[in-house]
Fold this sequence. Notes:
The complex is a heterodimer of chains A (140) and B (148).
Chain A lengths: L1 H22 L4 H8 L4 E2 L2 H21 L20 H17 L3 H7 L4 H24 L1
Helix pairs in contact in A: 2-4, 5-6
Chain B lengths: L2 H4 L5 E2 L6 H22 L5 H9 L5 H22 L10 H17 L4 H10 L3 H21 L1
Helix pairs in contact in B: 3-4, 6-7
Amino acid sequence: MKMKQSMAALIIGGFFGAGLAMAGMLNPAKVQGFLNITGQWDPSLMFVMIGGIGVAAIGFPILRRRSGPVLADSYSWPELVTLDRPLLLGSAIFGIGWGLGGLCPGPAIAVLSIAFWPAAIFTASMLAGLFIGQKLKAAQ
Amino acid sequence: MNFNQKWGCNMQIDWANFTPYMSLGGGVLIGLAAVLLMAFQGRIMGISGIAASVLQSRPDNHWRMSFLIGTLVGSALFAAIIAPVELMMVASLPVLVIAGLLVGIGTALGSGCTSGHGICGISRFSVRSIGATCVFVFTGMVTVFFVA
C-alpha cells in the first residue's frame, strides 16, 4: 500500500509542479506583478485561481458522493469553520513574505529544480519558519 | 482628478506580461492535482501543511515526500520538454531569508497557503479559506506597494 501511495503522490505532485510552471507561478517577478495593483498590474494569477478553483469545485463534490479515497481509509476534509485570530494573523504574515519574495510554498519547492540556490535558501528559511510557527500555534 | 491621480498610483494592465491561456491551463493542472490527491490519498493539497508534516516525521510521510519530489520533477520536466520557464528573482538573499521565514511562520499559524486555502479551500466555499486568502492577497499587495 505504501508503495502505491508513494507512486500516486509522485505522479500527482508531477501534475502540480508542471501546473505551477505552466501558470507562471514559479516566476517571483510575475507574482509581484499580480500583487502590484497600484502599478503595472499583471492579472494572470487570477486565471490560475479561476482554473484551479473551477476544477476543484467540480471535482470535490463528485468525490464526496463516493465512499472514500482509492488508497486510504477515508477523506480528511478540514473541519474547522470559523475565522480565528491565528488564521487571520498568520495569513497576514504569510502575505507579507509572499509579497517580499514572490514565492509561496509550492513554487518554492518547484523552483528547486530550476534555480536551485535562491530556492534552497528560501525553502530552508521557510522550513525554519514552519517549525517556529508550529511552536507558536501549539503555545496558543 | 481621476482615481489614479487622487491616490497617487498609476494602475495599468501589464499587457506585455499577461498570459491568460497559460495561466488558466496551469491552474487547471493545479486543480486536477488537488482533486486527484483527495481521490487517491484523501488529503487536501496544502503544500505548507505537507512540508510542515515532513518536519514532524509522521508515520504517513512517505506520500508527502513523494508528492514534494514529484512537484520538483514535474516543474523540471515541464521546463525541459514543453516550454522554458521564465524566472526572475525579485529579492536579495537577506530579503529572501526574511521572506521565507515569514511565509513559514505565517502559513503554519494560518493553517495554509495559496494551494490549501486559495485553491482547495475556496473551491469548498470554506469561510476560513476565503478569509485567509483575502487577508494574504491584501497584505501581499500592500507589501508590494512599498517594496516594488
